[in-house]
Design a protein that fits this description.
The chain is an alpha+beta fold. It has 15 helices and seven strands. The protein folds into three domains: 110 residues, Ubiquitin-like (UB roll) (Roll), CATH 3.10.20; 130 residues, Fumarate Reductase Iron-sulfur Protein, Chain B, domain 2 (Orthogonal Bundle), CATH 1.10.1060; 89 residues, no CATH class.
């Protein structure tokens, strides 16, 4: 079948341009197969990364028709079928557009500079710390259940697809990124690690850690290994919230107050939310004053609620939240009871 491949080509610090190649390919051909055909038969100057060709190394990440994916995993047939579903009126000759990953500067064509990706990964200390037991009497044993908690995050191949699509990093370059925080949870969940508390304190800092995530879900949708970075970020948040009170930071108050207000009335009482979160229940005078301009605009435009009516089914909402909180507490107790005793010297 004939397919047009539109490749976004670019030299470093230059404007991108589109170059089109028409290939006769099989529906089963991977995008990487097609790129190899272009390079070997049409244009040897085309630059892209590759290595294993088997969805293991993560080298061949790029944007395929607007979404980050592995070129060795996606094939022509499935990609054209996906395009047909989103755009029924397809061109006579189907087209596939290939572009470099986002959130990283282009070196050449489909090759990007991943320095920020690796630096942010390094910033979360993605390795198990057993400093206190530097010379153990025996290996650090884990139960099958403890080991199973590491499986999902252990599948990450550091391809950069989630980082490429991360809206939070795009607007806030201090955010470490979903790849780093998924690896961070891998350390938090590891029973052998001895730095859990300091790690959680680090990941709780401002918007560079877990609170910088905008929960857009793009990282989950493009991950080729089903690591689900957003879920790992949420797990870290839960660990932080279990260890801290509402006085710790505004981010913590935001989460805790939101849950408590919904638990009370089924939805958020906006009059209390700002005062409790930003004003820290009248403890933060500067925060309260910062609400004044917004409050005044709401009053003058008659947008400020004079009273609060609980939602229908508030008691059912309250029961659901309470049940989830009890279940979480029960699971944590079970986890602690399953932890093996340390080996003595």
């Amino acid at each position: 079948m004939e397919v047009l491949f539109k490749v976004i080509r670019q030299e470093q610090n230059c404007s991108p341009r589109v170059q089109t190649y028409q290939l006769d390919v099989e529906p089963s051909s991977t995008i990487l197969d097609c790129l190899n055909q272009i390079k070997w038969e049409y244009d040897g100057s085309l630059a892209f990364r590759k290595n294993c060709r088997n969805t293991i190394c993560g080298s061949c990440s790029m944007r395929i028709n607007g979404r980050s994916a592995l070129a060795c995993k996606e094939n022509v047939g499935s990609e054209l079928e996906r395009l047909k579903q989103s755009s029924p009126n397809a061109a006579a000759v189907p087209e596939i557009t290939l572009a470099p990953m986002g959130n990283m500067p282009v070196i050449k064509d489909l090759v990007v500079d991943m320095q920020s990706f690796w630096s942010n990964l390094k910033a979360v200390d993605p390795y198990v710390s057993t400093e206190a037991r530097r010379v153990p009497e025996r290996e650090f044993l884990q139960t099958p259940e403890e080991r199973s908690r590491l499986n999902q995050t252990g599948n990450c191949i550091l391809c950069g697809a989630c980082y490429s699509e991360c809206n939070a990093y795009e607007v806030n370059p201090t955010f470490v990124g979903p790849h780093a925080l998924a690896k961070a949870y891998r350390m938090v969940a590891d029973s052998r690690d001895q730095q859990t508390e300091s790690r959680l304190e680090q990941y709780n800092q401002g918007t560079q850690g877990v609170w910088g995530c905008t929960r857009c879900y793009y990282c989950n949708s493009v991950c080729p290994m089903e690591v689900a970075p957003l879920e790992q970020i949420s797990k870290i948040k839960s660990e932080i919230l279990d260890r801290t009170n509402a006085q710790t930071s505004r981010s913590i108050r935001h989460r805790k107050v939101l849950i408590e207000l919904v638990k009370q009335g089924g939805w958020i009482d906006e009059r209390q939310f700002g005062v409790q979160v930003v004003g820290n229940s009248f403890r933060d005078l500067k925060g309260l004053l910062s609400l004044a301009p917004l409050g005044w605009r709401m009053v003058t435009k008659r947008k400020f609620p004079a009273s609060f009516e609980p939602s229908g089914g508030a008691s059912e909402v309250r029961a659901l939240i309470t049940s989830v909180q009890r279940l979480d507490a029960s699971q944590q107790r079970d986890t602690l009871s399953d932890t093996p005793e340390p080996v003595g010297g």
